[in-house]
Amino acid sequence: MVTEEKIGNNIPLDGAEGHVTGTSEYVSDISKIENELIVDFFYSTEPHGEIINIDLEEARKISGIVGLYTYKDIEGENKFGPIIKDEVLLAESILEYVGQPIVIIAGESKKAIKLAKKTIKIEIKKLPHILSIEEAIEKNQFIGETRVIERGDIEKEFQKAEYILEGNTRNGGQEHFYLESQAAIAYPQENNTLEIISSTQNPTEVQNVIAEILGIPFNKIVVKTRRMGGAFGGKETQATHPAAMAALVAMKTKRPARIVLSCDDDMITTGKRHEFYNKYKVAFTKEGLITALKVEFFSNGGYSNDLSTSIRERAMFHAENAYFIPNIKTIGKVCKTNLPSNTAFRGFGGPQGMLNIESIIEDIAIFLKIDAFDIRRLNCFGIEKNNTTSYEQEVSNNTLPELMDKLLKTSNYKERHKQIEEYNKNSTLYLKGISFTLVMFGISFTARFMNQASALVNIYTDGSIQVSTGGTEMGQGLNTKISQIVADEFCVEPKTVRMMITSTEKNNNTSPSAASASTDLNGTAAKDACQKIKTRLIEFASNYLVKDNSEHKPSINAIEWTYDGIYDKRISNKKITFKELVKNAYLNRISLGERGFYATPQITLFDWNTGRGKPFLYFTNGAAVSEVRIDRFTGELKVLRTDILMDIGKSINPGIDKGQIIGGFIQGMGWLTTEELKYSEKGELLSHSPTTYKIPNIQDIPEVLNVDWIENGKNVVNIRQSKAVGEPPLMTSISVWTAVKHALSFISNGEIPKLDAPATSEEILKAMSRFPISMKV
Ligand code: MTE
Ligand code: QUE
Ligand code: MOS
Question: Is the CB of residue 518 below 6 angstroms from any atom belonging to ligand 1?
């Protein structure tokens, strides 16, 4: 008999067996049905220009070409966008980036489509283009309004400051590199309706945008998502475009239409993590206490907004990361450039905001010749005081000091810091560095309305259960965690809970699976549905269990619901199973299905006029120590050891959470060390395949990687006292980058080494070459 709670257990990922045996279905695995068309598109080879003429004559003649569509074939609106409606599905008169779709091609074979692409002729009048943040600033090209968050008086503090440092930081973008590229199938159905299968984090957005492009009501479109082969933010808004292309073809031809981007086209035509350029000025005391900070964030948004303005805001919310800064002013701007529109990527601006402050702290340490750990400990948010953010949200249940003190011991940081100083004195070939950084990541969508979710729970008469939520599975383990939550509500085995395909017909108006909050939102909505059913079942059981008993009156308070069975505690020898209970409830006409709903409590609408509000329900925290070694002659970087300590509250599934922590760290390490986006002068992506774009592989992983978390049962505001884990660990990788800076400080003769991200071998070599060689040989 099962008596154990399912929460906190290491249940394997839902679908894990299918993934390793190859039976899990992704979009391109779905069997082709008769008549199905292949969909592709012809895109701009110019970064900016005016379309003078589109010649499709030759292409139309190719056998196997069924349709060629330009913006003129769009019957609804060729205008959309998640925040600002500044995007088009197909270019009208102006081309704004290399990779911008101009013509949708529908064909019977790949060969015909390839041929068609060769014959399409577009006459373009070139216009001047800009690619960089600097050029956008110079030409005053921004998207959306400027945002400001301010507290205290920075100018007054700068006047009386003991020390001031000024400078800039820069980080590159990042390709999502999901293994399943963007893909969708559209099936035409009767009465001008469509069913779409899409690899998306955001089925509702796909539904809405398709309906608007086709000019039909939302209810004529059903979007379904079984799973994604990775998404990482890249399928939050940008899965929409290929799905809309397939939908358009299906509607026009009344034939099923499938689009699967090639990996190269996916990299060339879709958006990435935002590159940021930031200017800062910081004031501090001789002890390293930060008294004032001014930061101006400039992100490279690409041609349209997409989620850029929200991402810039999250960067601003994390400008101070885990540190209390009494006087602070943060300014955020999104630059408009002739590149694909940049989009969500794990961390959503948080990594860029945090990298800036962690870099500043590393610089202060080098400047003052104080161990950077001591500066971080000194400035860290407090428990009783110094515990409000720049936007005046209280940092409650602050676990940062605990994380710092524990990891300091378990990583043996101080001792290793000394050893590295000694090592570098005598080493001619290598330099070592070590760094200890923090993560404090706010959980909730910063747009308040998005913090809602619904769930549908259906119990069948054999006791088996189906659960549908608006959450999507991208490998992060959402479905597994929800099945554990539901199983625990009913005290049954998780394997009796089946997670259904995500569908807009089961759950309407859903938020994307994003902001790490999918379990928080959808899991709590599922729990709500379970509790509504349970209330009815307890009521029923209270009657049913005393049916043949003249001694006791029905009492819901006497009902005990356990893994051992359901019983009336006054008649404890009469226990029934969950299956018996639901079967008899059914026979007595009790409803065994329910819809649940959840809206995150406590958070407030953020007021951008005052820069004040409570955008986050809680914070997920982390600390990391990384030790690196760089080759003084080649700049080659090796991460020798990383220790990560997180506060993820009470884990619902420790195995999955550990996977998220390791995966996030390594993905972040790639962003900060080897992954470099290179463009031609025209804005053509040159690094568009694994041969030229270097993600981490097994040899890049730290030789020693210790992952752990603290016991924290205090996060009572969230489901099962858990904390979100999807994005926060990515930012533990900043410790690798700051460790490189630390290593460089040993040859910089007291100067602050200039280092941009990613710290590729080339970048490290460049940084080293700024200092005269002083080596003992
Ligand atoms: N883990 C895997 N395996 N694949 C992914 O695509 N996406 C990340 C993270 N972990 C991702 C992942 C991102 S960007 C987010 S926001 C969260 O998962 C989303 O899921 P959650 O809300 O359930 O944590
Ligand atoms: C984190 C996120 C998102 C976010 C804010 C976060 C996100 C997202 C949006 C958003 C904001 C305004 C809109 C909209 C979406 O905000 O993923 O449609 O109008 O989509 O802090 O992950
Ligand atoms: Mo994650 S970047 O919020 O999809």
Answer: yes
Q: What is the pLDDT of residue 494?
A: 95
Closest atom of ligand 2 to 317 CA is 21
Q: Is the CB of 346 under 6 A from ligand 1?
A: yes
List, in sequence order, the alpha helices (H) in 494-577. Answer: 518, 524-544
How far is residue 317's CA from residue 349's CA, in Å, rounded to a whole number?
A: 9
- Starting from the CA of residue 470, give the closest ligand: 1
Domains (range + CATH), the chain? 34-129+176-269 (3.30.365.10), 276-381+407-446+607-769 (3.30.365.10), 452-510+518-599 (3.30.365.10)
Q: Which ligand is nearest to the CA of 620?
A: 1
* Residue 289 main-chain phi, psi, to 5 deg: -75, 120
Contact 519 CB / ligand 1 (< 6 Å): yes
Question: CB neighbours (10 Å) of residue 119?
Answer: 16
Closest atom of ligand 3 relative to the 512 alpha carbon:
4
Q: Kindly list the catalytic residues.
A: 727
Cis peptide before 758 (omega within 30 of 0): yes
Q: Please give the single-letter amino acid code of residue 756.
A: D
How far apart CA 203 and CA 201 sit, in angstroms, is: 6
Q: Which atom of ligand 3 is nearest to the CA of 514?
A: 3
| C-beta 478 within 6 A of ligand 1 | yes
| Tens digits of residue pLDDT in 275-301 | 999 999 999 999 999 999 999 999 999
| d(C-alpha 313, C-alpha 388), whole Å | 18
Q: Are 439 and 510 in contact (CB under 8 A)?
A: no
pLDDT digits (tens, 9 = 90+) for 398-425: 999 999 999 999 999 999 999 999 999 9
Which stretch of DSSP H or E encloses residue 123? strand 121-126
In the prediction, which pLDDT does 773 show? 66
Three-state DSSP at 226 gives: coil
512 lines ligand 2 (CB under 6 A): yes
CB atoms within 10 A of CB 304: 22
